[in-house]
Amino acid sequence: MAELQLKSVEKTYGNGFKAVHGINLEVKEGEFMVLVGPSGCAKSTTLRMIAGLETISGGEIRIGENVVNDLVPGKRGIAMVFQNYALYPHMKVRRNLGFGLQLRGKPKAEIATATDEVSEILEIEKLLDRLPKQLSGGQAQRVAVGRALIKHPDVFLFDEPLSNLDAKLRAAMRVRITDLHKRLKAEGRPATVVYVTHDQVEAMTMGDRICVMKDGHIMQVADPVTLYERPANAFVAGFIGMPEMNLVPAVLTRGIGAQLTLDGQTVDLGDELARRLYCQDGPVTLGIRPQHLGVAPAGSPDSLTGSVTNVEFMGHEVNLHAKVGSATFVAVVPSEQFDRATQRGDKVGLTVSGRHAHVFDVTSGENVSLKGQIN
């Protein structure tokens, strides 16, 4: 396994469109790094540049000690699992697994041993004599992973490998892939992984660290807990978390503590938030996660009075939608604490915790409430 480094990597197409803007990223040896972002953010383009399937327009890609900018994919020490699995349809699973080693001229006995080992790890021993058309989606996905694993590459690349599976199978395969990564690490052969997805659940549950991208820029690289609790900017705050963070316009004033005014209603968020701020008073964007937004009777002290617009019963919890002036909030309430009589149009109080509140600059989107915290 090897470390992967991207230094000022750019991608500009022939028509002048710049897809990737000088990104810098370091993936440690044995690390599971997830690239996540909305469609069109260039995460797959970045992965393809690492693989050598796209040429880079500037910068440097280094795998281990080697600069691989000009190397063909087969010389880069990578193995890739594609979205459509790309299995050879006329070859049985056994040969699909070992074909890469066959092309390298490995002895038949070595290929057979490696095939048996990989099929045991992925629990596909009973599939070895089947053709790809005889496999389910999950089985085909495991074969594709096995075909990459058998090569013992320096870096594994996954390009949205679970997107063709149904929700239940996706959840099972997430666990299987992360368990495989942990198993290899425990056995002393850690796998360096770069995994692309648009699904934030995959990102948060699989990645050691996550690289959040937008429009060819890296917005933040951090572990899942840091991304959730200390988003660097409003984009990351809104992208990570379900339901997404409430982001609403407000006006900040400071006296003894920090006060935020929304559509004529003011709440005092206290000293703790005030100490974290490094911005001027004035227009800001308030961020509060639905899980941290409290619900109280309308008119309660230190609450915002809103009007209920929708109630979504999710089983163990309820998503309560409410409007405060022109701003829309979502609050997640445990089912046992929710008043089932609540209906659309009812008035409700929303309480904002200063401890969990974030304040973002309206121009740059930067989180200006992280003073003194590691970002």
Which features characterize this protein?
single chain, 375 residues, alpha+beta, Rossmann fold, OB fold (Dihydrolipoamide Acetyltransferase, E2P), 2 domains, 6-stranded mixed sheet, 5-stranded antiparallel sheet, 9 helices, Mo/tungstate-bd_C_term_dom
Instruction: Tell me what portion of residues adopts beta-strand conformation.
Output: 25-35%
Count of helical regions: 9
What is the gyration radius calculated from CA atoms? 25 Å
The number of E-state strands comes to 20
CA-to-CA gap between the ends? Answer: 28 Å
Which secondary-structure class do the elements indicate?
A: alpha+beta
Instruction: Determine the mean pLDDT.
Output: 92
Number of domains: 2
As laid out across the biggest beta sheet, the strand order is 6-7-8-3-9-10
Query: How does the overall form come out from the CA principal axes?
Result: elongated
Please describe what this structure looks like.
This protein is an alpha+beta fold and 375 residues long. It is built from nine helices and 20 strands. The protein has helices at 43-51, 93-103, 108-121, 137-149, 167-186, 200-206, 224-229, 234-239, 270-276; strands spanning 4-12, 18-27, 32-36, 58-63, 66-67, 78-81, 155-159, 192-197, 209-214, 217-222, 246-254, 258-262, 265-269, 282-288, 293-296, 304-313, 317-324, 327-334, 347-352, 358-360. Helix 2 (93-103) crosses helix 3 (108-121). The two termini are 28 Å apart. InterPro entries: AAA+_ATPase, ABC_transporter-like_ATP-bd, ABC_transporter-like_CS, ABC_transpr_MalK-like, ABC_transpr_MalK/UgpC-like, Mo/tungstate-bd_C_term_dom, NA-bd_OB-fold, P-loop_NTPase. Keywords: ATP-binding, Nucleotide-binding, Transport. Belongs to the ABC transporter superfamily. This is sn-glycerol-3-phosphate ABC transporter ATP-binding protein UgpC.
